[in-house]
Amino acid sequence: MILPVYTYGSAVLRKKSEPIDSGYPNIKELIDNMFETMHSASGVGLAAPQIGLPIRVLVIDFAQIEDKTDPELSKFRVAMINPRMLYMSEETSVEEEGCLSIPGINENVARSKHIKIKYLDTDFNEHTEDFSDYRARAIQHEYDHLEGKLFTDKVSQLRRQLIKSKLNNIVKGKVNCKYRVSK
Description:
The chain is of the alpha+beta class. The protein has helices at 27-40, 133-146, 157-171; strands at residues 5-6, 45-47, 57-61, 77-88, 92-97, 107-112, 114-120, 126-132, 181-182.
């Protein structure tokens, strides 16, 4: 089922998410719905707060990405429950990011090039993995949602001033996107 995406200005996007346990109702169905919602909006990642749930769940799928320098990238698909960041490198890279919750705005954001994260899969098996480059960037972006942070928080004060009117329009519901949104 395709769910509405909560947009900038929604309180749930600023709330730190809570962990869940294996008794959380219909978690596999929820994760399937998150993937479906993300795909229908042409996104590569989605965190539970973006669908109005303040829980620590995120999904990422790079199926639509074709990268000749990293042919394995398009096979990267993961659902993470209760992720916890263990390490973020001081070495960073700056790349343009967008967000389904902030439609129509893209900005350059510095992110750690390498991370280590611990998480549970959909069967509640624990994993600890290292990720680099684009995988690390996407995980950090979605992880920030679980912490109540948005990519716009990471841009310079000047850039925030320049996009302020666009952000205000999103808060007012003046958004033009091809997917269902909610406030």
